[in-house]
Design a protein that fits this description.
Chain B: It is found in: Nucleus. The structure holds two protein chains of two kinds. Chain A is mainly beta. Chain A has helices at 17-25, 102-109, 198-209, 290-294, 297-302; strands at 10-14, 32-37, 41-48, 52-59, 65-68, 97-101, 145-150, 157-163, 166-172, 190-197, 215-223, 226-235, 238-245, 274-277, 283-289, 305-311, 316-325, 328-336, 379-381. The termini of chain A are far apart. In chain B, a hairpin with a 6-residue loop joins strand 3 and strand 4. Chain B is globular, with a radius of gyration of 23 Å. The chains are: A mainly beta, B alpha+beta. Chain A binds chain B through residues 31, 100-101, 103-104, 107-108, 111-112, 115-118, 127-128, 156, 165-173, and chain B through 184-185, 187-188, 191-192, 195, 198-199, 202-203, 205-206, 233-244, 278.
């Protein structure tokens, strides 16, 4: 407005604030989010005490208009030292980065539409009965027209949402970024990788959550030539384990024992779309704080597919593919630092002692006390 | 001292008492020959002065007293509202002022016809749970076919106020408003203002404690059909602008000084400033109000009346809520006085 002579760094218009809301809600576990603006899109990332991080990438294809003008590089290049992480940004020196309040952004994005009592009514019962086929924006698919702009470095990030005759302008204060390093994930040396449906992982995590566990252990190996991927959770009340076997037998669901012994019929669709171990004979096992993994639950519940990967240091990467509308996918990423395991000297995970919030009292699964009355232990194979 | 009336419009009366109750627990009810006044004067926050024409809620209505047929009562709104709620399915309801053990009370007699459940072994007596001041008198109509009439009497203890007690209470005086405008549907306004309040609280989570006092909504309007609501926190500032609203014309017969009065009216000057798209910074009359208090005021939206807001810049916001009436005359109006915080 005032500084017309200088063109804004970013102008992006989306016809659906709801899509943006759906993606950003997946990473809503922190007050502040880092925003990186680049030629390809907007990257929102949050972290929790450097032991986990989540990021949502709003690709420019989500917007009807996306104009990015790199600011004059007044700053020196940002001190990112992880050299293999920039898959989205080739040149970070012209990528404006700042922090905003994520809850405020989410509240703004759903200010209309989602809670508008009018939307649940048929058109003739709505309050603004004056709207006609041509005056009503909804007919033209223009509800929640959302415009995001960032004028210059240090300026607020403004969101303008227009609906009928109401225009909401939200200016989010931008804060200097914390130059926290990304959790290093070495995708060149993966220990394990699998792809499955997001809802299956969600089911497993919700099932395991019922015991209120402290930690989640991921196990991947090849057993009798068949891939085995298991998640086991242990806590003060006991432990539980969910196994994903390819070619499962539906009748073995919930069977207390012998899921591995059953010879599955070969015509079942594969539960795990991909299953790769760096070494077919290796046995991958690493643990994470359950509460942190649970924060990705919303992403699991809406994702069509999830790629579960861990590198040789045990860092877990969950990449969710979310279909915002048919044929249009977006990605939400999570990374988790593993817990230190004390008993397994031969584990690769032991070298990574990066977790400052590592719980020293967390004993490995083998010696977790299990009160006889309260112990919940189940084995099942998910269909 | 006698007061007796049958309630014609139970739903309206229930919603009305519920809206008033959100602003204060006690109402001063003034019953007179031609109108019923409900007044809420809370210690803090918005005052409501409501004037209802008799037939907005009552039908046959008699009021008699030694003081010019005026009765002043102090009514606990929660009890009255609860009593009215139990009358929502009633076929008829009567209210009268009576005495029990020398204590004055409003007795609400609710007649319900329960003909639905003819197969049940036991008649259902309205399903009202025991309440203090509640007396159930089930009567078996026994007209066959399970057509039963249930009569429930709800008693609301009240206090009779002497004329001297209320003589000192006056409706607030305010200067002529700078801007008057018809508000958009209050429920829409409320859903957005509630979200704003929530946003402000989320933004000040770090500095808890002061959070409650921070929810200052800024409301502004101009004479070109624009209404602006905004809130500002450390983390953000957000504002919504409504356009294409209506600024009603002033009636020369109602304004002091007639046509000259209108020409000199503050709103006439404000008309010269600002634009209809709401983008200009000029011509706004602004007030700062408490977000939660505003949410309570907005609860009157359930009555579904037309609302005119009068903005006195930096001073006060006055809302006139006109209740829809059947005959078009004797309009009932609720007046809300919201005072502005200083910047």
């Amino acid at each position: 407005m005032e500084d017309e002579e200088e063109l804004p760094i970013l102008t992006a218009v989306s016809s659906s604030a709801r899509q943006l809301y759906q993606l950003l809600r997946c990473i809503n576990f922190s007050d502040k989010a880092h925003v990186q603006i680049s030629e390809e899109g907007l990257k929102f990332s949050v972290d929790d005490a450097a032991t986990m991080e989540g990021s949502a990438f709003l690709d420019k294809s989500l917007f009807t208009t996306y104009t990015f003008r790199a600011p004059p590089s007044t700053r020196t290049s940002e001190p990112h030292d992880s050299d293999d992480e920039q898959e989205d940004e080739e040149d970070l020196s012209v990528t404006p980065t700042f922090q905003i309040s994520l809850p405020s952004l989410l509240e703004t994005l759903q200010i209309f539409g989602l809670t508008d009592p009018n939307n649940s009514k048929p058109p003739w019962a709505r309050d603004n009965a004056s709207s006609t086929a041509f005056s009503n924006n909804n007919v033209l698919g223009m509800n929640n027209l959302c415009r995001i702009s960032y004028d210059k470095v240090g300026a607020p990030l403004s969101i303008i949402i227009t609906e009928a005759t109401i225009r909401t302008t939200c200016n989010l204060t931008t804060y200097e970024p914390d130059f926290a390093d990304e959790i290093p994930f070495d995708r060149q040396s993966l220990a394990f990788k699998t792809i499955m449906r997001g809802s299956w992982l969600f089911d497993a995590i919700s099932e395991l959550a019922s015991t209120g566990p402290d930690k989640l252990t991921l196990i991947a190996r090849t057993l009798k030539g068949k891939p085995l991927f298991a998640l086991s959770a242990s806590g003060p009340l006991g432990s539980a384990r969910v196994e994903f076997n390819n070619n499962p037998q539906p009748s073995s669901r919930g069977a207390p024992q012998g899921t591995n012994a059953n010879e599955p019929p070969p015509d079942q669709p594969n539960l795990l779309e991909t299953f790769q171990l760096s070494d077919p004979d290796s046995y991958v096992r690493s643990s994470y704080r359950f509460a942190l993994v649970q924060k990705a639950a919303r992403a699991m519940s809406v994702a069509t597919k999830v790629s579960v990967r861990s590198d040789i240091q045990g860092v877990l990467s969950l990449q969710f593919m979310i279909e915002v509308e048919p044929g249009k996918v977006s990605f939400v990423d999570f990374r988790f630092v593993p817990l230190l395991e004390e008993d397994d000297g031969d584990e690769e995970g032991d070298e990574t002692i990066k977790d400052p919030h590592h719980l020293p009292d967390l004993r490995p699964a083998g010696i977790v006390p299990k009160p006889p009355q309260l112990s919940i232990s189940s084995k099942r194979s998910t269909v | 001292m006698r007061f007796k009336a049958s309630i014609q419009n139970i739903t309206t009366f229930t919603k009305f008492t519920a809206s008033l109750n959100s602003l204060g627990p006690l109402a001063w009810v003034k019953l007179s020959d031609d109108q019923v006044c409900f007044t809420i004067i809370p210690e803090q926050g918005t005052q409501v002065w409501a004037v209802l024409s008799i037939d907005t809620i009552f039908e046959t209505y008699t009021v008699q007293s030694a003081a010019n047929n005026v009765i002043n009562l102090e009514v606990p709104l929660t009890s009255l509202n609860r009593a009215l709620k139990s009358a929502l399915n009633a076929t008829s309801a009567q209210i009268r002022l009576t005495k029990k053990d020398n204590l004055p009370l409003l007795a609400l007699t609710i007649v319900t016809a329960s003909n639905s459940n003819s197969h049940a072994a036991f008649p259902t007596n309205g399903g009202n749970n025991g309440d203090d001041g509640l007396r159930q008198t089930p009567l078996d109509g026994s007209l066959g076919g399970g057509n039963r009439e249930t009569i429930v009497t709800q008693e609301v203890p009240v206090r009779v106020l002497a004329p001297d007690t209320v003589a000192g209470l006056h409706e607030p005086q305010c200067r002529e408003p700078d801007v008057h405008i018809i508000l958009p549907p209050l429920m829409q306004l409320k859903s957005i203002s509630d979200r704003f309040t929530k946003l402000a609280l989320a933004g000040t989570k770090a500095g808890a404690g002061s959070a409650a006092s921070r929810t200052r909504l800024e409301m502004a309007a101009n004479m070109h059909g624009c209404l602006r609501m905004s809130i500002r926190t450390d983390a953000m500032s957000i504002s919504s602008v409504w356009t294409d609203l209506n600024n009603p014309e002033l009636d020369p017969n109602q304004v002091a000084g007639g046509n000259i009065g209108i020409a000199e009216h503050p709103s006439t000057r404000m008309k010269l400033l600002g634009t209809a798209d709401g983008r200009s910074e000029e011509g706004w009359a602004t007030v700062r109000i408490d977000g939660r208090d505003w949410g309570k005021v907005m609860s009157v939206g359930r009555l579904g009346g037309r609302v005119i807001a009068c903005f006195c810049h930096e001073h006060a916001l006055i809302l006139y809520v006109y209740l829809p009436s059947d005959n078009g005359e004797d309009e009932s109006v609720l007046t809300y006085y919201v005072s502005s915080y200083s910047a």
